[in-house]
Specification:
192 residues; alpha/beta; 6 helices; five-stranded parallel beta sheet; single chain; two-stranded parallel ribbon
Length: 192
């Protein structure tokens, strides 16, 4: 009998799985599960937010919910159907379910410390909306590390998604600004 774990994600395309670093997470999960005799099935959730039929298959031994934007109805459905699941990188509802999350605050702190140790003084920050707990934790850590290292918070190097913008508009604006202002070597911030 084939055994597999279904990895469900929502509102992400394949490129975004890579951009968010989930491809590395999926690869590690796959490597571990292969050693245990399991395979993985990647499933992008449908618009109607119902569990895909394969999750009810006898070969499905569990589910991993990957990333934010997973509707709570799926958690409820998995729980009521007694399907074992774990959440990865999900900030909402995680106190009620088993989850593995990033240490956003300390992670960004270590990144800034590393850049400072390399001699960088002009350090930027790009983020999604601060309505998201993960982005808020990262930004607060960034500001704290800048302050702790007696550096100046340079507003023009900080790009945070404006909640009044559409998600696609933010992506287009972010990539345009980055491409136009940081690919020209003469305009790049100094590292000293």
């Amino acid at each position: 009998v084939l055994k597999h774990i279904a990895i469900l994600f929502h509102n992400l395309d394949i490129l975004e799985l890579h951009q968010h670093g989930y491809d590395a997470v999926i690869k590690r999960i796959d490597t571990f599960l292969n050693k245990e005799g399991y395979s993985i099935i990647l499933i992008k959730l449908r618009e109607d937010n119902t569990l895909p039929e394969i999750v009810h298959n006898a070969g499905t031994k569990g589910v991993i919910l990957l990333g934010n934007h997973i509707p709570e109805i799926l958690y409820i459905s998995l729980t009521t159907q007694s399907i074992p699941f774990v959440c990865i990188d999900i900030e909402s509802y995680s106190s009620r379910y088993f989850s593995v999350n990033t240490d956003n605050f300390n992670g960004i702190g270590k990144i800034v410390e590393h850049l400072v140790a390399l001699g960088h003084k002009k350090i930027g920050f790009i983020s999604g909306s601060l309505k998201s707990l993960r982005f808020k934790e990262r930004y607060n850590s960034f500001k704290q590390e800048i302050e702790d290292n007696d550096l100046t918070l340079i507003k023009k190097y900080i790009k945070i998604k404006d909640d009044s913008e559409g998600e696609q508009n933010f992506r287009d604006r972010k990539s345009t600004r980055l491409n136009s202002s940081h690919t020209d070597i003469s305009r790049m911030p100094s590292s000293a």
